Amino acid sequence: MTKRIKHSLAYLIDKSSRNKTSEAEENLLDDFAFNHYQNSKWNETSMGNPDEVSQNIYEGIQFRIRKRTFRPYFKYMAAASILFLVGLGFFYKPEIVSEKQLTFKTSDIPKSIQLSDGSKIYLAANSLFQYPEKFSGEERNVSLLKGNAFFEIAKDKKHPFIITSGEIKTRVLGTSFHIQMSKTKCEVIVVTGKVNVSSKGQSVDLIPNEAALFESQNLTRQVAEKSFFVNWYATDLTLDQTTLQQVIAILQYKYGVSFQLKNEQVLTMPLTIFIKKDATLENVLEQINYITNLKFKVYGQIVKMN
Q: Is the N or C terminus of the chain more exposed, i.e. has fewer CB atoms within 10 Å?
């Protein structure tokens, strides 16, 4: 119903600005605006002085459409229209403005944080996350600014949880999933529940064991790697007869590093390895080096095989 009202109002206003409305439609607009002006309430603390606001709008309209003839009470209609659009959530959302934004940053090991709604975020090493001190709007909006994270979102059907990560938006009501970002791509992997991922007019709905990959401006649905079906940020992980390539993939996401290999043939090598949830990258690499006789070493955010 609200969407229908928004559409009809926008259509009539646009039509009126082009002098295409009939007398009946013009009267309908006038009666609508004046009625809402009479029944409107203004919060001067959060919305400013009503006379100044309505005058500014009125002057702007006069400047843009100088040849148009307006009713004497048009500036009141402008003020009333603001109140009506505010009520529909068109552009003024004081609850979002008032949300104090915080940041959560990790260094060389993963860490977790619990949000005001009970949701828990497990942030990989070398990652940056932004969130409000307290959710107060119709949506729960956060941003993954850098790196990778695992999300366990508290269920709230009335307040969707939306994560902005680079050029994509992930929308959920209550579920768990990974988001993994790099300079060239972003991937969302669902563990439980349903997730919607969208970007640039593209949209995919995901269920458990599915992934969305955004790369080269394209969004595609894929089958997820089975090693991502658990929250390995917060859980001890045993990888049994897993290829080195899969182990490296997990280490890259968990610790926010990249690997440089001189010999890619070793990637097919199977190994069994135990990764403790709070283990450092160096400890994990020591295991791999001992089992495989390879020589991995950390150089900043790059792991090289010497």
A: N
Burial grade of 124 (CB within 10 A; 0-12, 13-18, 19 or more) = buried
230 vs 141, more confident: 141
Distances in Å between the Cα of 276 and the Cα atoms of 119, 254, 284, 299 are 23, 12, 9, 22
Q: Of 12, 4, 1, which Cα lies nearest the Cα of 81? A: 12
Closest CA to 195 of 226, 166, 219, 227: 219
- Candidate from 5-19, 169-183, 221-235 with smallest mean pLDDT: 5-19
Residue type, 183: K
Cα–Cα distance, 116 to 136 (Å, whole number): 10
Give first-to-last CA distance, the chain, whole Å.
65
State how far the alpha carbon of 183 is from the alpha carbons of 6, 186, 187, 209, 250, in Å: 39, 8, 12, 24, 18
Backbone angles phi, psi at 23, to 5 degrees: -65, -35
Which has the closest alpha carbon to 260: 213, 298, 205? 298
Nearest Cα to Cα of residue 265 among 242, 280, 249, 245 = 245
Predicted TM-score (pTM) of this structure: 0.64
